[in-house]
Structure formats: C-alpha cells, structure tokens
Amino acid sequence: MKWTLYLGKVAGIRMFLHWTFIILVVWIFLMHFRESQSIRDGLLGVGFIIVIFVCVILHEFGHALTARKFNIGTKSITILPIGGVASIERMPDKPSQELLVAIMGPAVNVVIALVLYLFLNASGNIPDLAALQETQATLNLGDYFLFNLMVVNIALVAFNMIPAFPMDGGRVLRALLSYGMDRSKATNIAARVGQFLAILFVFAGFYTNFWLVFIGIFIFLGAGGEATYEATKSILSGYRVRDVLMTKYTLLAPGDTLSQAVKALLDGQEKEFLVGDPETITGVLTRDSIIKGLNELGQEAPVSKVMRQNIFTLHPDMELQEVYHQMMTNGCSVGPVYEGSHLVGIVDRENIHELVLVNKALAK
Element (H or E) spanning 251, and its range? Predict the structure, then answer.
C-alpha cells in the first residue's frame, strides 16, 4: 500500500502504518486539548486512541495466526485511521476453516473486554451508569480509561459481526451457509443480506448519525465486490491456463526505449508487455508504467528502468482459479507461460475476464 511507514515484523508479519493515522492522532490531541485547555487531556486522548489501535492490531493477528494454522500466509497488517487491514493471502474454502479465521478476530476483542471487566469488577471501578445518567455526567478518560476501553472493544465486536461483507460477520454468514450449499451461492446470499443492511444504514444515517451513510456505502460496495470476485472464481472452475493462452504477443528487450514501447502500445491492442528474451523474462511493462516513465524519465529511457520485476511464471496446466487469485492479490496483470524451459505464450487479466464474459453469455 502506498504512503505507509514500515514498522517492522511481528510473528513474521510485516507491519505498516498509513500516514493518515498521524493526522488522526493530531486531530484527537487538538480535540481533547480544545475542550479542557489541558495538554494532559490531549495526551490522554492520544494514548487512548493508540491503545484502541493496539486492540485492533491484536484483532487482525487473531485472523492472521488462525489462517496460518491452515497454511495460509499473511503478507502484512496495515494500520489505517478506520482500523487495521490484514492482507491474508486468501480465505479458506472449507466452511469450518473460514468460520474459524473470520471469528477469531472478534474473539480477541471479546477476550480483551472480558479481562477488563473482571479487573474492573474485582477492583470496584465499574461506574454506576444509572447515577451518571441522572447527573448527566460523562465517562471522562481520566477517571474511566479502562471502562471506556472495555466499551470500545464490545463495540468493535458488534460492528465486526454485522452479517455483511467485508465485515467478519459477512464471512461468518457465508461459512455457515456453505455447510448447506456451494460457496458461490452462499456468497451471493451473504452479499444480498449485506447490501440490504447497507441500504438500511444509509436511510438511518439521514435521520440519526450521518456516519451511518458512509458505513452503509462501504458495506454495499464491499458486499458487491466480494460477490463478483467469488462468482468469477466459480466460473473459472475447471479451466486451466492453456484455455486462455495467448501465443501472439510483443516481447520487448530491457534496452528498448520508452519511445519503442509507445510505438508497440499504439500499434495494437496490447496494454502489457513482457520484457526480456524467450529464455529469461526479466519484467513486465504496463501502460501505466510507460506513461509514468515518460513523465519522469523521458522517451529515451530504457524500459528496464520502469518495468515491474516481481513477476510470476505460469504453466499451461495451472488452474485458472489460482492464477486469477494471484493476479488480484498481487496486482499483476500478465504472466509468461512456460512449458519446461520453453516460453509458449502469455496470460493476462483481460483475457481471463473475456472468458468470464463468454461463459456468462452462454449461460443465459
């Protein structure tokens, strides 16, 4: 993800902080400072938001470490102002495994809330909410730091268990439905439930809290995206790389200039090009990287300066479902196909989408 600060590795998982989180911290400080004109209150507010995000990170590790039990890796965890994002390579296909991976995140927050409750109860620090309501007092952070933290963790559980993608509750619902039907149908039903709830959130937001409108839009788009992704995977079931293999393609040399790449771009329908020779492909050049290179380096710069080097090679017998997943996960749009040491063609994301469109048309 762009604009992130690398924090290091925890349990072998890379940790990143998005720069906008710093804006959130500054805003929290100023908000608390403005209310009381106290630096202490400002720092207390910052401390509280940081502790909340520690809970969010532990939530994401609940997903990641459970996925690891099923030999599914997590590339990174990124801290955003809206929460944490664990880049799990994929969700398990087995309903029981997906259920465990999805539920272990909220389960971490349940444990945190329970531990805080037991501590507060044992120390006699649970506030009398009825008395506070009568006096219209507030649960200020200075006196009720841990109680507020407990409430936030309960709220995180409730929010994440909303039965709608991309929330954990949506994945839990799909996993439960998958026990009685195929995964694609379960995804479609879970997505429809999520989009229905999203519409309710949007309408409720106009009359209560406008934040519900943004949450509703977020859920609606997430549910639609998950349904489309799973439907595409279902259509690709049974197909292999050789079914969409393209044998006519342009191969650029690393020393070719960007002006030569532009000529190839304008001369045909290709938007991605392999760079190298038939024996060794060294990179991939996309239309976007060509335009960026022209802006930054000029038309005489070699394509090796702007090509993408982290490519993955394919075999004709690879399952197309897995290739599609890898392309969507890694942001790759094209891959060379080798049979032994011989380059036999390429596969790109656009050609896979064309296969999906053809199958949809034939199914009508």
Answer: strand 251-252
Cα–Cα dist 68/45, whole Å: 35
Q: Flag whether pLDDT at 328 surpasses 80.
A: no
Looking at 236, 271, 286, the residue that finishes a domain is 236
Distance CA 294, CA 286 (A): 12
**Whether the Cβ atoms of residue 223 and residue 201 lie closer than 8 Å to each other:** no
**Given the DSSP bridges, would you call strands 342-348 and 334-339 parallel, antiparallel or unpaired?**
antiparallel
Residues 58 and 45 in one domain: yes
Please answer whether residues 148 and 141 qualify as being in contact, where contact means their C-beta atoms are separated by less than 8 angstroms: yes
Judge if 296 and 339 occupy the same domain.
yes
Q: For the chain, report the end-to-end CA distance as a whole number of angstroms.
A: 39
Give the number of domains in the chain.
3
Tell me: do 75 and 3 sit in the same domain: yes
Structure tokens at 11: 């349990």
91 and 208 together in one domain: no
Task: Domain of residue 87: give its range.
Answer: 1-161
Write the pLDDT tens digit of every residue in 13-58.
888 888 777 887 788 778 777 777 778 777 888 888 888 888 988 9
On whether both 46 and 179 belong to a single domain, the answer is no
Same domain, 22 and 156: yes
Residue 104 in this model has a pLDDT that exceeds 90: yes
Q: What is the pLDDT of residue 363?
A: 67
- Could you tell me the CATH number of the domain that includes residue 304? 3.10.580.10
pTM: 0.72
Looking at residue 340, the DSSP 8-state letter turns out to be: T
3-class state of residue 247 by DSSP: coil
Q: Around Cβ 74, how many Cβ atoms within 10 Å? A: 20
DSSP string, 122-187: HHT----HHHHHHHT----HHHHHHHHHHHHHHHHHHHHTSSSTTSHHHHHHHHHHHTTS-HHHHH
Residue 141 pLDDT class (50, 70, 90 cuts): low
Q: Kindly state whether residues 33 and 128 are assigned to the same domain.
A: yes
Q: Which residues touch 249 (CB under 8 Å, ≥6 apart)?
A: 270, 273, 274, 345, 346
- Residue ending a domain, choose from 140, 161, 182: 161
